[in-house]
Amino acid sequence: MMGQIENCLGCKTLTGRINPPGGVIYEDDWWLVDHILPPIFIPGSVVLKLKRHCEHLAALNRSEASSLGPNIQSVSQVVQQVTHAEKIHVASYGEGVKHIHFLITPRTADLPASNIRLTLWLGFRRWLFKLKLSRREDPLAEVSELVNQLRFFITERND
Ligand SMILES: [Zn+2]
C-alpha cells in the first residue's frame, strides 16, 4: 500500500497486520468497513476507513469525497437494520488514530441516549477494564454473527 504509515492503526488493519473480528464487511475502491477492535463494549460498532493513509478530509480526492456520503448512509442503514438501534452515531475525531475513519455506532435502547452520556458510559467501561476491575469477555461469537449479517445486507443492498 502506498503511503502507509508504520504505526498507524488504520494502516495496520488495512494491511492485515491486525485483523478486526469477523473480517472485512464491505469495501469499494476508496473505503473499507470492518468491526471495531477488542475490547468491544458495543457489538455492531463498525469503522469506515479510507483505504489510503490520509489525515485530513480536506485532502480527499474527488472520488473519495463523492463516495463518502453514500457509504456513511448505507453502512448506517445496515447497522440499524441488523442491531435494531434506536439511533446511529457517526463520529470522526482523528485524534488518537489520525488516519481518516468514521466510527458508526449503534445506540440501542439499553445504552444511554446523547453522545455525552454514551461517551461517559464507554469511558467508564474502558476504565474498569483497564484497571482489571471488570472481568468481561469480548462478545466475539455475537460480533462474528453481526459481521456476517452486516456483510450479507450491505452486499444485498449494493447489488
Ligand atoms: Zn494510516
Q: Quick recap of the structure?
A:
With 159 residues, the protein is an alpha+beta fold. 40% of the residues lie in helices and 15% in strands.
Bound molecules: zinc ion
The biggest beta sheet, please?
5 strands, antiparallel
Uncertain stretches of 5 or more adjacent residues: none
Quote the beta fraction. 15-25%
Mean pLDDT over all positions: 93
| N-to-C CA distance | 28 Å
The helical percent reads 25-40%
Tell me the strand order in the biggest sheet. Answer: 1-2-3-5-4
| Shape by Cα distribution | globular
Number of helices: 4
What is the chain-wise order of helices and strands? HEEEHEEHH
- Could you say which structural class the secondary elements and strand pairing correspond to? alpha+beta
Number of strands: 5
Rg, Cα atoms, Å:
15 Å
Structure description:
The chain has helices at 9-14, 62-83, 115-130, 140-158; strands at 26-27, 31-35, 46-50, 87-91, 101-107. Helix 2 (62-83) crosses helix 4 (140-158). It has 159 residues and is α+β, with helices and mostly antiparallel strands. It is built from 4 helices and 5 strands; from the N terminus they run αβββαββαα. The model has no long low-confidence stretch (mean pLDDT 93). 40% of the residues lie in helices and 15% in strands. It starts with 8 loop residues before the first helix and ends with a helix. It has a 5-stranded antiparallel beta sheet. Residues 5, 8, 10-11, 53, 99 line the site of zinc ion.
